[in-house]
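fwd from M.: "can u put these together and see what the complex looks like"

so here's what she sent:
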Amino acid sequence: MTDQPTPTERFIQGILPENPVFRQLLGLCPTLAVTNGLKPALTMAIAVGVVLLSANIIISLIRNLLKPHLRIVVFTLTIATFVTIVDRLLAAYMYQMSKTLGPYIPLIIVNCIIICRCEVCASRQNVLAASADAMGQAIGFGLALTSIAVIREILGTGMIAGIQIMPAAWPSWVIMVLPPGAFLTFGLLLALVNWIDSTRSNNEGREG
Amino acid sequence: MERTLKRGAAGASGRLINSNFAQAWLILVLALIFGAALAAVQVNLSGVIAANKLNETLERVPELVFGPEAAAKMTSQNASVDITPGTVTIKKDLKTSYYNLFRVTLESKLAGWVVKANGQGYADKIELIIGLNPSADTITGLFVLQQKETPGLGNKITFPRWRNQFIRKKTNTPLVVTKGKSQAPNAIDAVTGATISSRSVTGIVNRTIGDVKGRLTPATIRFDERQL
């Protein structure tokens, strides 16, 4: 257990160095599907964050009882429970948003980010590390979703969170709010992150 | 190796430890706990969720009959607007169809009707509510409850700018979708790039009005008084 990262390391890693979307390329289904507006993207990020945190805490608490060959079943069971609770809460208190997100909330059950964090961190480390890990990854996921959503919503509709910010003459690029816009934005942002990363490591290499 | 030795020595109790039940006890316990938690959530929230669905329609009913400004003014003045849900049964070509509708009265006088209708859109089912005046010869409002049309194109059918062109249209001639500005009294301007969605909505409106017009009488509507 001594070689496992500390809670602080887990937290920081999730935000950028091991960002679930831009670095691990996990959870791409909601990333592409619900980022045509800032509001659905934020709701999705919060929903995933809540499920991730709850699942990580529960799995971490029962990690010593897990049988290796049955662990995935336990992960899925736990995640499915919290996703259903979040889905019902959205339907009860944010009815319009729950209709907008449609099937993508139930689909959090098969979101690889959460299963991956249960496997990599929560089933091996204590509750503190698992919670820090969940929060770091959730913030990382939220950052990725909002960055894609802001670009798509501004270019596609001239609005941000439903408020007009571009001049009325802005010709809304409809393609940006359609599925191809998700792929374009995601690809370009991924390239940008990789480019920043490679120039930085090149500089470090020269200095060293 | 160790396992086989244990089983041989302990006999019946060893069999129990290595049985499927012993392997799966954690899953069974978790399933029970989670099941109970979900049941509690469902018991507490199912009422709220059902009310949300009904409210979504009811909230829209006054503005479909009186127009948005007048409806807002009435709410602030506490006018006695009564909404009574009911169903009307249409028998046509051996097929029986039902329409859910709402009778709207203002100070006990009939103010109009709101009819729920649905039909196939470009992507999925489109659900509409249509406001009609008391004699059902003029459309007083249109609202899209549910649609999955293409974002950025077909979903413009939900924008007030598009759906408000239905207001004040006469119902004696079917509405026709046109491209570009048309001066005809029954013309509906199509959403650019979404002619199919526009035609779907207009088709649903035409069919519904054709079906219910002339049947909006106390004799043909079965009112459900208990609901409100």
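replying to her w this: The beta strands of chain A are 159-160, 163-164.
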